[in-house]
TrEMBL record:
Organism: viral metagenome
Pfam families: CTP_transf_3
Keyword Transferase in annotation: yes
GO molecular function, one term: N-acylneuraminate cytidylyltransferase activity
Protein name: Putative cytidylyltransferase
């Protein structure tokens, strides 16, 4: 069975216009993930899901297949779930592949080695799902909608040291590897269960591009030769 990778690459972004083609060290954001996928040696076909001609051209130039999004997904791009888009492509475009690898282009520094390592991790554990992660050493608070009231009930005696959070991980969004049957039956990339595992990654490789500040930081890192 072949292994397929899907890269979601829509051309619209509310936080950073044209983010998907924003330059990092002279290369468009989506190019970094395409390169990592092609060089990983564990992916047979790379598909780019998009609604944008420029993104499609980049995909085709790099020998990837293009999956065009429907008008429904384009109109609902701000609210539609990514899992729904991937499940639609798998079903409608008759993509063959097991497992299915989901690589979000907003993680430009995830490497071919990361993808290959995650795939080996997936196979060794006979997993249902594997997702990229980093240690979670920060404290999370829930704030109300207006940010004017108390954020939460606070119990000082329950506050943990960072060392006590060693079993907590942060899903970094860089890599998802999922058994095809999960997609076909449930239409989602991750499920709860004892066959779902976190694949620990380097913090630098987990950087995610969401806004202009992230883009500046990424260009500084790439410009200094750290990736």
């Amino acid at each position: 069975m072949t292994t397929a990778a899907i890269l979601p690459g829509h051309g619209r972004s509310t936080t950073l216009p044209r983010k998907i083609v924003a330059p990092i060290a002279g290369k468009p954001l989506v190019w970094w993930t395409i390169r990592a996928a092609l060089e990983s040696e564990v992916i047979d076909r790379v598909y780019v899901s998009t609604d944008d001609q420029e993104v499609a051209d980049i995909a085709l130039e790099n020998k990837c297949d293009v999956l065009w999004r429907t008008e429904h997904f384009i109109k609902q791009s701000a609210t539609i779930k990514l899992d729904d888009i991937v499940a639609y492509h798998l079903r409608t475009d008759k993509i063959e592949g097991d497992p299915v690898v989901l690589l979000q282009p907003t993680s430009p520094f995830r490497t071919a080695k990361d993808i290959k390592g995650a795939m080996e991790f997936y196979r060794e554990r006979m997993a249902d799902c594997v997702f990229g992660a980093i240690p979670q050493g920060h404290f999370l608070w829930v704030m109300n909608a207006t940010n004017k009231g108390p954020v939460a009930m606070y119990r000082p005696e329950a506050r943990k040291n960072r060392q006590q959070l060693k079993d907590w991980v942060w899903e970094n969004g860089a890599i998802y590897i999922t058994r095809r049957a999960i997609w076909d039956k449930l239409g989602q990339r991750v499920i709860a269960g004892d066959r779902t595992f976190a694949y620990m990654m380097d913090k630098l490789h987990s950087i995610e591009i969401d806004d202009q500040d992230d883009l500046r930081i990424a260009n500084l890192i790439a410009g200094n030769g750290h990736v």
